[in-house]
Amino acid sequence: MSVIEMSRIKREYRMGGKHNTSKKKKKGNDDGVVIVRALRGVDFSAEAGEFVSVMGPSGSGKSTLMNILGCLDKPTDGTYTLDGIETSTSNSDTFAFIRNRKIGFVFQSFNLLARTTALENVELPLFYRRADKKDSQGFHKTKSVSWRKERAMATLREVGLGERMDHFPSQLSGGQQQRVAIARAMVNDPAFILADEPTGNLDTGMTLEIMGLFQQLNNRGKTIIMVTHEPELASYTKRIITLRDGELVSDIPVQDRRDALVDLAQWKQEHALLSENT
Ligand code: ADP
Ligand code: MG
């Protein structure tokens, strides 16, 4: 079964007349109402275990697609089935449930709570789970403090941060902070991880580390959808979809996929040579 199944997804924004001075592509009508067609009938599906890049120029509809994929927004038209649940007809409770439990978000800016340790940041999504009556398997277990703590600790170990659990975000490097954010995204075992330019704030070394981590997690079966502007980063994923003017214009498997940890080792070597010579 597909994890993601989108069919003929459209998203139109209606903009009220007079105050709108933007000159983007729009169709006008007599009332001065303009319709922005941000997505014009996108078909996209992904199976468990995929690692997909979403590419396309600015304004092509990537954020709009991410918002719909992440159940932060609903399409104007079309259907989106996530892990077997039809989202377009679901009520707001179900919609929030899907967002909290089926999707793990990773943002460019990490979005960690500053006065909260790495461990507590990762535990956080498990608290929301307590009130979740739909969870038939884990309802009682998730009430226990030790269950939450152990689960968060195991997830931090999985991203290589076993030694940094009690650190605050300010005591961690950017790459380490993003690892905490990735652990937080994974702790509820979501259907997929949705990452929006996850290395946009990181230098080359940390970027390769994070891409290496994503590749490792994907090798262990995690499904990842990642928006990126950089073809180089897309070359670490398995499949690239490209949007243009709200349409999906290409959908291709990655040939000769690169290994981020191999590239990281090489980068470190070159880096060391460079600093020796200066
Ligand atoms: P990208 O993320 O690829 O840069 P977006 O999805 O943000 O593209 O935008 C796609 C199109 O939809 C653009 O023309 C943008 O101006 C328009 N758009 C995005 N969000 C809104 C909104 N909230 N209201 C009106 N138009 C929007
Ligand atoms: Mg965008």
Q: What report would you give on this structure?
A:
The mean pLDDT is 91. The radius of gyration is 20 Å and the shape is globular. The strands form two sheets. A six-stranded mixed beta sheet has the order 7-8-9-4-10-11, sandwiched between helices. The protein has a five-stranded antiparallel beta sheet with strand order 2-3-1-5-6, covered by helices on one side. With 278 residues, it is of the alpha/beta class. It has helices at 62-69, 92-102, 118-128, 145-158, 174-186, 204-219, 231-234, 260-276; strands at 2-15, 27-28, 34-47, 51-55, 77-82, 85-86, 103-107, 192-196, 224-227, 239-244, 247-253. It starts with a strand and ends with a helix. Helices cover 34% and strands 25% of the residues. Bound molecules: adenosine-5'-diphosphate and magnesium ion (MG). The site of adenosine-5'-diphosphate has 13 residues, from strand 1, strand 3 and helix 1.
